[in-house]
C-alpha cells in the first residue's frame, strides 16, 4: 500500500508558474510509476504527465507539452510537476497517482493509488 499527498496548488494569474508536489509514503514508494491527472469542473479526468521509476522516461499530454515538466526525487519519495506559462484552461483539481509497474500508462484506470488532489486556479 502507498499513500500519496499533493501540495502546491493555488490561485495564480495567466502566465504565472506553480510547482506541485506529490509525496509518497508507505511501501517503498520509489518503485512506483507516477502520473499526474487533472479534472476540470464538468469534465472527465485527463492525463497530464507521467514518469517512470528511474525518471528516464516521461510523457506529456499535448496540451501541456513545452509548458509542464515532471520530475522525481526518489530519495525524498516525491514527484514534482513544474507548471509554467499557465493558462485559464489549466484550471482543475490536479491529482497524482501511482502504479506498481515500470510501464508508463496514460489511463486513470491503470493507477490503483491516488492522492486527494490539489486545486489549481488560473485567472485571466
Mean pLDDT: 94
Number of strands: 11
User: What amount of the residues lies in strands?
Assistant: over 45%
Helix fraction bin: under 10%
Quote the distance from N terminus to C terminus: 40 Å
Structural class by sheet pairing and helices: mainly beta
User: Biggest sheet: strands, sense, closure?
Assistant: 7 strands, mixed
Low-confidence stretches: none
What is the string of helix and strand elements?
EEEEEEEEEEE
The number of helical elements comes to: 0
What would you call the shape? globular
Q: What Rg is obtained from the alpha carbons, in whole angstroms?
A: 13 Å
Provide a descriptive summary of the structure in words.
This protein is mainly β and 124 residues long. It has strands spanning 2-7, 10-13, 18-26, 33-39, 45-51, 58-60, 68-73, 78-83, 92-99, 113-114, 118-123. The mean pLDDT is 94.
Which terms would index this structure?
124 residues
Quick structural gist:
With 124 residues, the chain is mainly beta.
Provide the fold topology.
Elements (H helix, E strand, L loop, with lengths): L1 E6 L2 E4 L4 E9 L6 E7 L5 E7 L6 E3 L7 E6 L4 E6 L8 E8 L13 E2 L3 E6 L1
Parallel strand pairs: 2-11
Antiparallel strand pairs: 1-3, 3-8, 4-5, 4-9, 5-6, 7-8, 9-10, 9-11
Amino acid at each position: 500500500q502507498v499513500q500519496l499527498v499533493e501540495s502546491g496548488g493555488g490561485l495564480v494569474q495567466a502566465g504565472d508558474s506553480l510547482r506541485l508536489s506529490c509525496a509518497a509514503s508507505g511501501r517503498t514508494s520509489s518503485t512506483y510509476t507516477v502520473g499526474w491527472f487533472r479534472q476540470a469542473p464538468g469534465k472527465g479526468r485527463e492525463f497530464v504527465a507521467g514518469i517512470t521509476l528511474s525518471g528516464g522516461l516521461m510523457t506529456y499530454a499535448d496540451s501541456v507539452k513545452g509548458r509542464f515538466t515532471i520530475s522525481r526525487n526518489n530519495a525524498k519519495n516525491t514527484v514534482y510537476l513544474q507548471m509554467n506559462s499557465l493558462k485559464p484552461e489549466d484550471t482543475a483539481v490536479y491529482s497524482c497517482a501511482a502504479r506498481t509497474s515500470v510501464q508508463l500508462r496514460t489511463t486513470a484506470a491503470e493507477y490503483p493509488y491516488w492522492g486527494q488532489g490539489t486545486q489549481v486556479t488560473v485567472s485571466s
